[in-house]
Amino acid sequence: MNIKWTNKITNEELWRITKQMPIEIQIKRRKWNWIGHTLRKEAGGIEKTALDWNPQGYRRRGRSKRMWRRTIEDEIRNTGRSWNEVKGIAGDHNACQLFVDALCSKDLMMMMMKFIIGGCYISLKPFSTHSKPLKY
Q1: Long-range pairs of 98-106 with CB within 8 A, sequence gap ≥ 24
Q2: Does 110 score more than 60 pLDDT?
Q3: Any idea what DSSP says for residue 41?
Q4: For residue range 55-101, what is the model confidence (pLDDT) as tens digits?
Q5: Which secondary structure element, helix H or strand E, spans residue 136, and what is its range?
Q6: Are 110 and 25 a contacting pair, CB within 8 Å?
Q7: Residues 32, 104: contact at Cβ < 8 Å?
Q8: Cβ-count burial of 99 within 10 angstroms (0-12 exposed, 13-18 middle, 19+ buried)?
Q9: Residue 16 in contact with residue 87, Cβ under 8 Å?
Q10: Average pLDDT over residues 108-129
Q11: Is 134 helix (H, G, I), strand (E, B) or coil?
């Protein structure tokens, strides 16, 4: 890589050089792989029960906390599916992997577009040796 400690590079550039996915995508992929694994377990397992558990009662005053379950529900809602559809998809390992790939590739594409638009250098005259690249 030949990057010195005095050089300043962005995380996106480092990921591109090392051909690594951003950590957010890796975490999301592992989370959904774990959810699929847990939903394929036999009925009555404590992990499977915990995913469907809905605690009753009142919450304290103030802004509600961002809970893990709500982040999952938001991600499912963004795909246009319901929790029961995801549970059905999880029953088939191959379908579950396709669902996880589609879910994570959409986010990866959004991050790549943000990087391309936000930090790439575009030259107005690509074949001229005297032009300087412009940063947009």
Answers
A1: 99/32, 99/36, 100/29, 100/32, 100/33, 100/36, 103/28, 103/32, 103/75, 103/79, 104/25, 104/28, 104/29, 104/32
A2: yes
A3: S
A4: 787 777 887 777 888 888 898 888 888 888 988 988 888 988 888 88
A5: none
A6: no
A7: yes
A8: buried
A9: no
A10: 49
A11: strand
Of 57, 83, 88, 86, the C-alpha closest to 70 is 83
**Higher local confidence (pLDDT), 74 or 111:** 74
The first and second tokens of residue 86, run together, are 């995801």
Tens digits of per-residue pLDDT, 30-56? 999 999 999 898 888 888 888 888 778
Residue 122 pLDDT class (50, 70, 90 cuts): very low
* Residue tagged 């990921």 (tokens): 15
Beta bridge partners of 122: 134
